[in-house]
Amino acid sequence: MISIIAAIGKNNELGKKNDLLWNLPADMKHFRETTKGHTVIMGQKTFESLGRDENGKQVGRLLLNRRNIILTQDKTFEKEGAEIVYSVPELMTLLEKTSNKNKENFIIGGGQIYKLFINEADKLYITHVNASFPDAEVFFPEIIPVIWNEISHEEHQKDKENSFDYTFSVYEKF
Fold this sequence. Notes:
With 174 residues, this protein is of the alpha/beta class. It has one domain (2-173): Dihydrofolate Reductase, subunit A (3-Layer(aba) Sandwich). 20% of the residues lie in helices and 33% in strands. The protein contains four helices and eleven strands, in the order E-E-E-H-E-H-E-E-H-E-H-E-E-E-E. Strand 4, helix 2 and strand 5 (67-71) form a beta-alpha-beta unit. The longest helix is centred in the first third of the chain and has 11 residues, at 25-35. The two termini are 15 Å apart.
């Protein structure tokens, strides 16, 4: 089963300069709890955005308690502890051979990877951030209501830790 998990702004904004546009600790906790124990699939840029060295340079890090698969076109890219694939067919073959059919495999970004998998996904876990970000450079594909049925909806107000109102929504394909 392919699921997508993402946080998006009002206009489907995802990020800028390989980073998120907001800081929502509640969304990070939601992401950790939802993906823990599952496979996470990401592009190389998303992987690199997950960790920084002492100088603030993005260097990547594996997500603990998850199987990490990185999809890249860079045939020289290596990361100990991660599985590297170079195409969608290669990824699908790997998942078919090694994944439990009932267990979710989460696409976690970035923008290009979401576009590749939006039509393959069975479920979307979307955090809707109630704000617009006009300087965004990367966007999530449109969630088309005749394709996706919202099956759960949980609204949250901004607070001292989370600077925007946000909603956790889950969608399934019709």
